Amino acid sequence: MARLTYSAQDSVYKVFDLNNYSMLYYSISDKSVQEIKISPGIMLLTFKRATSHVPLQILSIEDGTVLKSFNHLLHKKKKVDFIEQFNEKLLVKQENENLQILDVRNAEQIQVSTTEFMTPSAFIFLYENQLFLTFRNRNVSVWNFRGELVTSFEDHLLWHPDCNTNNIYITSDQDMIISYCKADTEDQWMEGNAGSINISNILTGKCLAKIKANDAPPKEEEEEECSSSGSRNSKQRKTAVAEALEDITSLFYDEERNEIYTGNRHGFLHVWSN
């Protein structure tokens, strides 16, 4: 594993080995470098754009050796929405243009119509499954590198429209996604900002489980039959669950303990366990 740092004062990138936190013996000091993307074992360097192309380099993370240098042709006067790298695949999208999926080994290219693939706000690459997630307008989609939509989720509308990845967890097997989501209208039994924690299968899009504000406590009509203390306790519990699901800013899943940890903007930590 490698970590990249950048000194704005010196315009120098440095690569650190996360196994022992030592700096690898090379650095990158080319001021024309605009962006660096890291994939397992390699880095993609994006340089300042020319009129009709963008210069690119692929480097070995281990020693900084240049593995490949090439220019990717662009449409003039159209801004680049993104350039992303996944192993030997390069994803390039310009404004109002098709998505291009380029294999840098043999220059083979796949184009995905702009009507099918619209520019997302964020990506998550699934290296185990050779797939990638896109996030756009609170929606999550799963794609393969043939440009085919693999999964659309049946019940996974994210809370944040701009995809706050602090509120998203992908399991180590990359088969489940756990996110802080917008609650269904019928789930919102009280006024407030309570969302829900949704757990979905990445490959099928099916919702496997959901933690929501009205889970477990009895309904209002059932509360009337309870004793006064029982009614108060159930209402208190409903309030506590709803408050814990408000304004969540971070989410983590402990796969060994099968527990979900959430933190909110007030600085409180909550643990959700079976």
Outline of this structure?
By secondary structure, the protein is mainly β. It has helices at 220-223, 228-244, and strands at residues 2-7, 12-17, 22-28, 33-39, 42-47, 53-60, 66-73, 80-86, 89-94, 99-103, 109-112, 122-126, 131-136, 139-144, 149-152, 168-170, 176-181, 196-201, 207-211, 248-254, 259-264, 269-273. The chain is globular, with a radius of gyration of 23 Å.
Would you kindly provide a written description of the structure presented here, covering whatever features stand out?
- With 274 residues, this protein is mainly beta.
- It has two domains: 1-117, Methylamine Dehydrogenase, Chain H, CATH 2.130.10; 120-274, Lipocalin (Beta Barrel), CATH 2.40.128.
- The protein is 8% helix and 47% strand.
- The chain contains two helices and 22 strands.
- It has helices spanning 220-223, 228-244, and strands at 2-7, 12-17, 22-28, 33-39, 42-47, 53-60, 66-73, 80-86, 89-94, 99-103, 109-112, 122-126, 131-136, 139-144, 149-152, 168-170, 176-181, 196-201, 207-211, 248-254, 259-264, 269-273.
- The strands form six sheets. Strands 4-5-6-7 form a four-stranded antiparallel beta sheet, with no helix packed on it.
- A hairpin with a 4-residue loop joins strand 20 and strand 21 (259-264).
- The radius of gyration is 23 Å and the shape is globular.
- Mean pLDDT is 84; it is low at 217-232.
Helix-and-strand structural type: mainly beta
**Largest beta-sheet details:** 4 strands, antiparallel
CATH level-1 class of the largest domain? Mainly Beta
What is the 3D form? globular
Bin the helical content.
Answer: under 10%
What is the count of structural domains? 2
Radius of gyration from the CA trace?
23 Å
Order of helices and strands: EEEEEEEEEEEEEEEEEEEHHEEE
Estimate what percentage of residues fall within beta strands: over 45%
Q: Which residues form runs of ≥5 with pLDDT under 50?
A: 217-232
Helix tally equals: 2
According to DSSP, the number of beta strands is 22
Q: What name does CATH use for the topology of the largest domain?
A: Lipocalin
Report the oligomer. single chain
CATH architecture of the largest domain: Beta Barrel
End-to-end Cα distance, whole Å, is 33 Å
Mean pLDDT reading: 84
In order across it, which strands form the biggest sheet? 4-5-6-7
